[in-house]
Amino acid sequence: MVVLVLLCSTACTSTPTSAGRTTLGLSAWPGWFPWQVAQEQGLFQRNGIDVELKYFDSYTDSLNALSSGAIDANSQTLNDTLASVSGGAQQTIILVNDNSTGNDQVIARDGISGVADLKGKKVAVEQGTVDHYLLLLALTEAGLSQKDIELVPLATDAAAAAFVAGKVDAVGAFAPFTTTALQRAGSRAIVTSAEFPGAIPDHLVVSRAFAKNRPEAAQALVNTWFDTLEWIKQNNGQAVEIMARRGGVSTSDYRSYDAGTTIFTLRQNIDAFTPGVTPTHLNHQAGQIADFMVSTGLTPNRPSLDGLFDDRFVKAVRR
């Protein structure tokens, strides 16, 4: 009964927050698997919201689904949200799930000891997504550009498989696909997101129409997230089993991802949404990413940051 009280600390109601079902997308990333826990433990319902949790095997498909209006909300990175906004999508970020602190990696075959060694090599990555961004950051830091490598555009699962099969020299991937890639004998991560603090924050993103017209539903999603984190804290073993099963990995593999994904507390959420001039502040990081996207040709137009962040929902969570 104590756990139930904790779960209801944000908002509990016996009726839906607003008419209709809310469709929430997620794909293979450890920082988003708590949504699976929320579904299996009935935590959406306890917050009065009817949610269809839609899992996408392809992360890119989830981005396209939100941009096209096929789903109401999606789990996606800041840089991918900026790419969508640059293309004309009207989206807003209402929650920070986590920061990638090592679980995004560029993994290379034996004989490649650093990023500089990628010159002239085949590198597979899902073009235009977060690990493409990490690859470009690493190349830039090493004094190279995308023109110095042979980019092989593949969906992340296919990219990892191609690397294991020896078809490419390196791969940009995120957990749990990093586990697949590292099955290649002699392979190792030559750069990770831990080397670029704050560069890859992950979010709950909704259409601006959803945030405006269904604020009760948006609030219920945010409330559910923090209730879920509390449930995971109270029932860690069971939660890890659920999340590992969703990721298609063993519980021991899943636990190995802990250090590489830093889940944000409510306090960290509020601090991140607060305007500032360091990598921990979303407005600062978004500006840097937007400039980088244009300079490297990821997008022809600098995305507008107006309306990108909506902090009212995290601020309304009861503490």
UniProtKB/TrEMBL annotation:
Q: Does the keyword ATP-binding apply?
A: no
Q: Which UniProt keywords apply?
A: Signal
- Pfam families cross-referenced by the UniProt entry: NMT1_2
Cellular compartments annotated: Periplasm
CDD domains (alphabetical)? PBP2_SsuA_like_6
What protein family is recorded?
A: Belongs to the bacterial solute-binding protein SsuA/TauA family.
Name by which UniProt lists this protein = ABC transporter substrate-binding protein
The organism is: Lentzea indica
Lineage of source species: Bacteria, Bacillati, Actinomycetota, Actinomycetes, Pseudonocardiales
